[in-house]
Design brief:
alpha/beta, Rossmann fold, 2 domains, 16 strands, 28% helix
């Protein structure tokens, strides 16, 4: 009996063609499957909840995508989601939390070149994603790209134009596709599964702001958050988590935000290496002001984790405790 795959398209470069004003998503799921010639190997259920450039992706779209996955997956063996690359890591991280109770593997992919473009990587990436969804040994949310299969909440886009656009940060890949076969690192997957924690499913409604520090940043930026709609602030600090305190009111204003109930966290703005705000005085003083140090987590996984936690009926102290708790593998180094 053929396996059944839920095949979801959301737009992105992979589905784009030239509109006259630049690339725009126009190619539909049925056309892509015909290009692949996969319909004889698998049965497919098609869902197209929206067709957008992923730069336009919003948390409300993640909620629609989650509902599409849940409502169309009955009788399926796995899920493939085609997505634009620019915000793919955010979507993969968000779905990792939103689908903790989902029983099937979900594999997200896209491409750096449109499916009908010369030298496209679309066919390779879709093939890898389908095979991963059909054979995955665990119901994880993953990204398949350039024959690598990565945990969704470990992954960041690191290149705007290279075909190998995504890397696993704070860990290693969990599988790869070679010579028509999927291969899985089962010990790494077992480690991820053993550390997972359950949490009620919910739509994402929490609002988190991401601030990347630059030399000389004005403390006036903190005034923007007073009385606003943002509930949490993620700061990408310097080095291992440095936040400036010389000739600036930045720390004093951050402490005021914390005192008003805002959750303020900091992680390194570097791709690699851990955050440890206890090493330098500039980090320790920030922690004394109430800033939470977060290590071994991607920016995408941290931002979306806060959005998700803020959507649950949790107190501030419960959210702080949950930030230090692993749920989907986001804090597990493999």
């Amino acid at each position: 009996m053929k396996k059944k795959i839920l095949f979801i398209t959301t737009g992105g470069t992979i589905a784009s063609s030239d509109s006259g004003d630049g690339l725009k998503p126009t190619v539909h799921a049925a056309t892509m499957l015909e290009e692949l010639g996969y319909t004889e190997s698998y049965d497919f259920v098609i869902s197209e909840p929206f067709q957008i450039d992923s730069s336009n992706m919003r948390p409300s779209d993640w909620n629609v995508l989650m509902e599409s996955i849940r409502s169309h997956s009955e009788g399926c063996d796995g899920v493939v989601v085609l997505h634009g690359t620019d915000t793919m890591a955010y979507t993969a991280s968000a779905l990792s939390y939103m689908l903790l109770d989902f029983p099937l593997p979900v594999v997200i992919t896209g491409s750096q070149k449109p499916i009908h473009a010369e030298g496209t990587d679309a066919i390779r990436n879709i093939t890898c994603a389908i095979e991963a969804a059909a054979t995955a040994p665990a119901p994880l949310v993953m990204i398949a790209f350039a024959n690598h299969v990565m945990l969704g909440c470990h992954t960041s886009k690191v290149s705007a134009d290279r075909l190998a656009a995504f890397h696993t940060l704070y860990g290693k890949d969990i599988g790869y596709f070679r010579k028509g076969q999927m291969h899985w690192y089962k010990k790494r997957i077992d480690k991820l599964l053993s550390a997972r924690r359950s949490m009620p499913c919910c739509a994402i409604t929490g609002k988190t702001f991401l601030l990347k520090l630059v030399p000389g940043i004005s403390s006036d930026i903190c005034d923007f958050f007073h009385g606003g709609s943002y509930q949490a602030l993620v700061i990408e600090g310097f080095g291992s988590g440095g936040i400036p305190n010389r000739k600036t009111e930045f720390l004093n204003k951050l402490q005021k935000l914390v005192d008003e109930g805002m959750i303020v966290v900091c992680k390194t703005q570097c791709f690699y290496g851990k955050t440890d705000m206890s090493i330098y005085e500039v980090g320790r003083l920030a922690m004394d002001a109430g800033v939470i140090s977060m290590s071994n987590i991607t920016t995408e996984a941290l931002v979306t984790k806060l959005m998700w936690l803020l959507s649950l009926d949790l107190s501030t102290e419960e959210i702080k405790e949950a930030l230090a708790t692993n749920y989907a593998g986001e804090l597990v180094v493999i």
